[in-house]
Write a structure and sequence with these properties.
Layout (H helix, E strand, L loop, with lengths): L9 H13 L2 H26 L5 H13 L2 H14 L13
Helix pairs in contact: 2-3, 3-4
Length: 97
Amino acid sequence: MKTLSPDTNKDIESFHIRLIRKASLQKRLAMINSLISTTRRLSWLGICERYPEDSLDKRIERFIVLLYDNKTIAKRIVELLAHRKYISQFPFKDKNP
């Protein structure tokens, strides 16, 4: 595997790659899942911090646009959630974990 991080010492990077290769598939998938969850959570918190005046609906719309890059889908999902009154059950409804 070639160098991926030009700002990281090559020996450290090689060690890191060896550790990842030795990890079981289950462990690697768990790390990927954790990275995705963390990234989404930080994205949601960033939206809440940047747009504190927005309604929950608008923040959810921004979040969905960020994830899927599609405003039409985002608006439709928010409409469906509002219609079914699931907005209050949205997993990241507030900015405090």
